[in-house]
Amino acid sequence: MDATIVDDSEGVFTDEGLAEYDAIVAFQTNGDPWTADEKDAMERWMAAGHGIAAVHNATDMRGNYAWWDEMVGSLMPGHAPTGTDPGQPGVVRVEDHHHPSTDHFTETRWQRSDEWYNFSNNVRGTAHVLATMDESTYSGGNMGYDHPISWCKPYEGGRFWATALGHFPSHYDEPKFMEHLVGGVEYVAGLEPGDCGGTVWESYERVPLDQNTSAPYAMDVAPDGKVFFTELVRGQIRVFDPQTQTTSTAVTIPVYSGGEDGLLGITLANDFEESGHLYVYYSPASDDDTDPENFFNVLSRLTYDHQTGTIDRATEKVLLEVPARRLPRRARPHGRRPRHGPRGQPLPRRR
Hints:
The chain is mostly beta strands. The chain has two domains: 15-203, Rossmann fold; 216-347, Neuraminidase (6 Propeller), CATH 2.120.10. Helix content is 12%, strand content 30%. The protein has helices at 15-18, 36-47, 66-72, 175-188, 272-275; strands at 23-27, 51-55, 78-79, 88-94, 109-114, 117-118, 128-134, 148-155, 158-163, 216-221, 227-231, 236-241, 246-252, 263-268, 277-282, 296-305, 310-311, 317-323, 339-340, 346-347. The strands form five sheets. It has a seven-stranded mixed sheet, with helices on one face. Strands 14, 15, 16, 17 and 18 form a five-stranded antiparallel sheet that branches. A hairpin with a 2-residue loop joins strand 8 (148-155) and strand 9. The longest helix has 14 residues, at 175-188. The two termini are 54 Å apart.
């Protein structure tokens, strides 16, 4: 990968000048270094399928250039206390281990020092977040738990990658940071593929499974795409069929629904395709729900009929009874979705 260092943009930011390059690395750039004609040429170059990488200060150029600011997706109104080289220690959380700028990390928590930027808004949703800051590990963060520090996205026909890391000269002697930087440049240059749509909400389509549901509570998905979900109060197991785009009721189980109890959890067996077995955790109704003798929940196995799309209550096998408290005004359920043990056996969750 060859690189050209440009201190003066004259003669480079034209249609002819940019045609020689696959990527632009804006390295510690700020202000507004381009003329209007140069901006037009860069935008045409980007639309032709090229890429831009923004490093540290280039994520906050403040150059009154709306196209650039929209590409970055946020501004930097301030940063945590910087200190002296190498900066304040902190932890970067690696969120994507597949992008070329982060696939060299074996860890999810990257301990290093830097000048930690705060941003005016969270880019998650409009960009794919590659790494975030753990604000509990340093002082001066103000974005909360979800604090992106590196991200990427398709932009105007091209590719964009950003890292807010790399304030001090010593950072460029760090092997992991340099791999991070080189991987980002390789991505925008088109030398390495990268999926930058993971946390871009427009990449997804929301498909309502049921427009007439009541207190949906737990769900599991079968290998053929059918979605099984429970209705807490009604005690129904509902099934969405992606082939017919319809939702039906497989079975209704009488449940005690006081204090947020009811049909609490569902898990399909590992061999569901063959056996039709599924496991549910629920609070059974009784003739007298005030009698302590009836204060228990059950973990049961039921069998789904793949032909009829229904569950016969006669197939129920109670595997476990769990003592429960049912007190007035108690608003906390006793359990959640069952999970499988190492041999595929169902295990109830404890709160």
